[in-house]
Amino acid sequence: MDDKDLDSLLEPKKPVKELVDAKALLPAVEQELDSFDAFFSSPIAQGGAGNEPLVRSERAILRTYLIARLTERFPSILEL
User: Fold this and answer.
1) pLDDT by residue (tens digit) across 25-42?
2) Does residue 3 belong to any structural domain of this protein?
3) Does 53 or 12 have the greater pLDDT score?
4) Is residue 24 situated within a structural domain?
5) What are phi and psi of 10, to 5 degrees?
6) Given a cut of 60, is residue 12 above it in pLDDT?
7) Which domain holds residue 47?
């Protein structure tokens, strides 16, 4: 994939949503990360994924992705 293809992939298909209420968005994302981490690190016998808890860098990657998706700044592969 060359740079031109990457640029077209990252162009929003709709006008970009503004972070109208960051005070509401950020806590919601953190709550979702906590829920995912609980599932991710719970034993398989309890319905979880049986992994180690997320580390800071993994949480940061997921947080960045969730905020970008919720504000339509990053396209979904399903929309391509």
Assistant:
1) 888 899 999 999 999 999
2) no
3) 53
4) yes
5) -85, -5
6) no
7) 16-75
